[in-house]
Design a protein that fits this description.
14-stranded antiparallel β-sheet; mainly beta; about 850 residues; globular
């Protein structure tokens, strides 16, 4: 190191390492000043968090080469063209490409001067300060006291690691606590790449932005919100926590409520309360023009192994008569809902969901349960709320789930909704072979009850004459042409257990043989209440049954491969034979979880084609088909499957009439099933075409047909689904159903998307659902609007219900997010 002579100026033209605790006075003061600069940088960062948006009219300076990173041991690296020690004037100066590095913070400038007499650090010219978090502060002049209580920065500009930016003509710091930014501008939008001087999409400008470091608050005076440089909203004053505060009590963005004729219009003003680091609350009073104040409150707490939340709602209605003749015609209405989940270890979790209401129309009347995604898509109001307590465990090849469930009906038919006391599922696949094959087992236990029967009239005659509740002299009589019993009154308990084994062999000819075997046992106890009409479908009183279903079978595949210059084709005949006894108690036991059955190519080779445990397929059966896959060398593939199922012997479970006629009109309810086929073609990643069909095995008439096409391009996508479904009178569909569902989206600009869908009922020649939406989405702004109109149909002759829903959403990243919605429903 070059020697320093008292009273003269010495110059250093190389890097200098200085230890803070052992250096001379001038260097120590220089270190304090650098730390002060870093502190101001943190202060500037605090000013950025609440709003993060502004207009910037600058071209960022090209980054200078970063100096070597010094170890974090209180050493400071100073690098400059010249470092001058002027003992006569008590100044230390670094001139020319100055770089100071200390504990992860670097300062770059054309010139840095520390004056020992005034105890101030002065930097000027292309100042660039980078802290350890990646925040970059630009300035032309920076002047700070060595205890960083006072100072100012001219021509300030800050870029943070989370892509927010702030600028100000000047920043003044006083009393070690207050910093005032003059003519501040903030944005969370990136500058335009083609024209950085162009104003960002949105920005907030303030005549003054005051940061109170002790309170950790930012106060904006005479602020305005601009879009593309055009002022749209003025705010004389507002405040927000600084970015160092993750959670702080205060008012949130208010929201507008479109309301209804019963409730009136209103506004919500949420207040957030940060109670402690692990808990908070949000209180949201909603002021309605007709009914008064609806108070909403939410409490949340996060614990070491999970979290829970509780929401409560309540209102003393000013005009209960607005709901005359409805459940809402009462003075007080309210509800409470809660949810939580906790981890017992890395494999087990338990939790709950719970809802209680004063009346079942409360949520829908006040629109408190509308679910929507971040872009504003609508799901119409649900018809029920689920309360449950559950325990779930997941292993490498095992799964356990136990839960008790209670559905709260929004339609008022609470007595027709079942209570599931527990339903328990467990499945496991052994990690080691058994007799050389894979062995698995699963169990299911359920216990439920229902107070009143749920009938579904499926003909005009049943609707008008009430035949569903007419008792029959024959306790086992059925009325499939009139009604279905969707849910029985009484209690039901079932324990099911099944073990499965299978093993695949490939012989020298390439044929694949897969023998399989399973054994299922069901223990069932039901108590069916003798309500009017129930005896037409189920034996009333107590029933105890034990059902055993052993199954053995063999699956055969023989793939043939043909290779050509243009690609390869694999043709694979598939045959499956299944031997088992008849289903015992077929159609004479309640059916709660196996009510849906759609026979198509997807489940052709399922050993048991019922969707749940309450029914089990019995009798001998053969499933046969052929599958072809063609892969083209230039891309694209075609896959085709065609097959049929044969009932070989015993009782055909799908031809047995039960309380809801599961299996009838399915195509499996005859010795030779309908033909099923599927085909798909993907020439490339842009286009996809698929067809699924079920055809009558005698006439080849189409019973079920779906054709779908999809196209996805860079700027737009479209899909068309055509469906044609034959009448299923035993299930309540008395006429053929035919329709087209289309969806599409178009990227009209870089961030603008327009989307829509429509469902056209060809039989009624009516568009019974359409959705229109438009939105703008980028990294700093969201604008979306959706409008939905749909008809809800039910089996039989009940008139469809027409529903409308609208939602508008706007969001400014880091600043605000607001939405409004409205919906209505009525008979059409």
């Amino acid at each position: 190191m070059t020697a320093v002579r008292r009273g003269l100026v010495s110059r250093l033209t190389r890097r200098t390492w200085v230890r803070a605790n052992g250096c001379g006075l001038s260097v120590r003061r220089l270190l304090l000043a650098v730390v002060a600069a870093a502190s101001l940088g943190g202060l500037i960062d605090a000013a950025v968090a609440p709003a993060k948006a502004q207009s910037f009219t600058y071209n960022p300076l090209p980054p200078r080469p970063k100096p070597p990173r010094a170890p974090n041991d209180n050493q400071m690296l100073v690098q400059a063209t010249e470092v001058d020690y002027d003992y006569n004037n008590s100044r230390v100066s670094a001139v020319g490409n100055v770089q100071l590095f200390y504990n992860g913070t670097s300062v770059e400038a054309d010139r840095v001067i520390y004056d020992q007499k005034t105890k101030r650090l002065h930097a000027e010219g292309n100042i660039r300060m980078t802290d350890a978090d990646g925040k970059i502060t630009y300035a032309e002049i920076m002047d700070l006291s060595d205890d960083y209580r006072d100072g100012f920065v001219d021509s300030l500009r800050v870029d943070t690691a989370d892509q927010t930016r702030m600028a100000a003509s000047r920043a003044d710091r006083s009393s070690g606590n207050y910093t005032v930014f003059e003519n501040g501008v903030y944005t969370a939008c990136a500058p335009c790449k083609e024209d950085p001087k162009k104003p960002p999409l949105w920005q907030v400008k303030g005549a003054r932005i005051i940061h109170d470091q002790q309170e950790k608050m930012l106060y904006f005076e005479t602020a305005q919100l601009e879009f593309f440089g055009v002022p749209l909203a003025y705010m004389p004053y507002f405040s927000t926590p600084d970015p160092t505060v993750k959670r702080k009590s205060g008012f949130l963005m208010p929201g507008y409520i479109s309301g209804t004729t019963n409730t009136g219009y209103g506004v919500e003003v949420p207040y957030y309360w940060a109670i402690a680091p692990d808990m908070d609350a949000t209180i949201t009073p909603r002021f309605l023009s007709r009914q008064g104040a609806l108070l909403q409150g939410e409490f949340r707490q996060r614990l070491i192994d999970g979290a829970y939340q509780i929401r409560a709602y309540g209102i003393y209605q000013l005009d209960p008569g607005a709901f005359a003749g409805q459940p809402g015609d009462r003075e007080f209405r309210g509800a409470i809902d809660t949810k939580g989940q906790f981890a017992l270890n890395d494999k087990w979790v338990w939790g709950w969901d719970g809802v209680l209401m004063s009346d079942y129309y409360f949520f829908s009347d006040y629109r408190l349960y509308q679910y929507r995604d971040p872009l504003g898509s609508f799901l119409l109001l649900p018809t029920e709320a689920l309360s449950q307590l559950y325990l779930t465990g997941v292993g490498n090849r095992s799964f356990f789930d136990a839960r008790t469930m209670y559905w709260l009906s929004y339609s008022g038919n609470q007595s027709q909704v079942p209570i599931v006391y527990p339903v328990i599922d467990y499945s496991n696949v052994l990690n080691y072979p058994v007799f050389g094959g894979e062995f698995s087992y699963k169990t299911n236990f359920v216990n439920l009850s229902r107070d009143d029967a749920v009938f579904d009239p499926i003909t005009t005659l049943a609707n008008t004459n009430g035949l569903c509740t007419t008792a029959s002299a024959d306790p086992l009589a059925r009325m499939p042409a009139q009604c279905l019993l969707r849910g029985f009154p009484g209690t039901y308990t079932r324990l099911s257990a099944e073990a499965q084994w299978r093993k695949s062999f490939t012989d020298p000819f390439g044929q694949i043989w897969t023998p399989f075997a399973s054994l299922r046992a069901d223990a069932i106890k039901s108590s069916v209440s003798n309500q009017p009409g129930v005896s037409n479908y189920l034996p009333v009183g107590d029933t105890e049954a034990f059902r055993l279903m052993p199954t053995v079978g063999l699956e055969y595949r023989y793939p043939f491969i043909n290779v050509q210059p243009w690609g390869s084709t694999t043709l694979e005949p598939i045959a499956q034979i299944i031997i088992r006894p008849n289903e015992t108690y077929a159609g004479r036991l309640p059916n709660e979880d196996a009510q849906s059955l759609v026979f198509d190519a997807a489940n052709l080779f399922n050993v048991d084609k019922f969707s749940g445990y309450d029914r089990v397929e019995g009798g001998g059966r053969a499933n046969v088909g052929v599958q072809s896959t063609t892969q083209f060398d230039r891309g694209g593939a075609v896959k085709v499957l065609f097959g049929q199922s044969y009932h070989l012997f015993g009782l055909n479970s799908f031809a047995v009439q039960d309380a809801i006629n599961t299996g009838l009109n399915s195509g499996l309810d005859k010795p030779r099933s309908d033909y099923v086929t599927s085909a798909s073609y993907s020439p490339n990643s842009t286009y996809t075409f698929s067809v699924r069909s079920r055809m009558d095995e005698q006439t080849w008439n189409v019973q079920r047909f779906e054709a779908e096409g999809r196209a996805n391009f860079n700027r737009w996508s479209v899909s068309v689904l055509y469906g044609n479904y034959a009448a299923q009178p035993e299930l309540g569909y008395l006429t053929r159903r035919e329709g087209i569902l289309t969806t599409g989206s178009l990227k009209v600009a870089t961030n603008w998307v327009v989307s829509g869908s429509a469902r056209w009922d060809l039989e009624a020649n009516k568009i019974n659902q359409y959705v229109l939406g438009a939105g703008y989405v980028d990294d700093c702004f969201v604008l979306a609007a959706n409008y939905v109109t749909s008809y809800s149909y039910s089996a039989g002759t009940a008139p469809p219900t027409l529903s409308h829903a609208f939602m508008f959403q706007i969001g400014l990243r880091t600043l605000a997010n607001s939405s409004t919605s409205s919906s209505s429903a009525g008979l059409q």
